[in-house]
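Quarterly update, task 2.4: iron/sulfur cluster-bound model.
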Amino acid sequence: MAASTETCKQTPGAFAPVIDTRRCEGKADCVRVCPYDVFAVRTLTAGERGALSFLTRVKVAVHGGKQAFVVNAGQCEACGLCVAACPEHAITLARNQPL
Ligand code: SF4
């Protein structure tokens, strides 16, 4: 099913997705559904792996060593498609603080 932007009602950048690294398994559903290319999935660097808890490092390794990253937060229109699509319930939306 094609992603829809019909429900996107927020000014771009007013909200941004937050990924729970304890939950993300890099399955890339967020990449597939986001109409604005906000996400990328890639292999974690050694430093990024080192910042995770032991259990999360093991979990990430079992799932190919990849996780999702927010690479274009300013493009998010808070449609919620990624929140609904993530099978691990790893994504929430947070309102950005005004400058
Ligand atoms: S809510 Fe998620 S799917 Fe929608 S624009 Fe923002 S990052 Fe993309």
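Highlight for this quarter: The domain at 15-95 is CATH 3.30.70.20 (Alpha-Beta Plaits).
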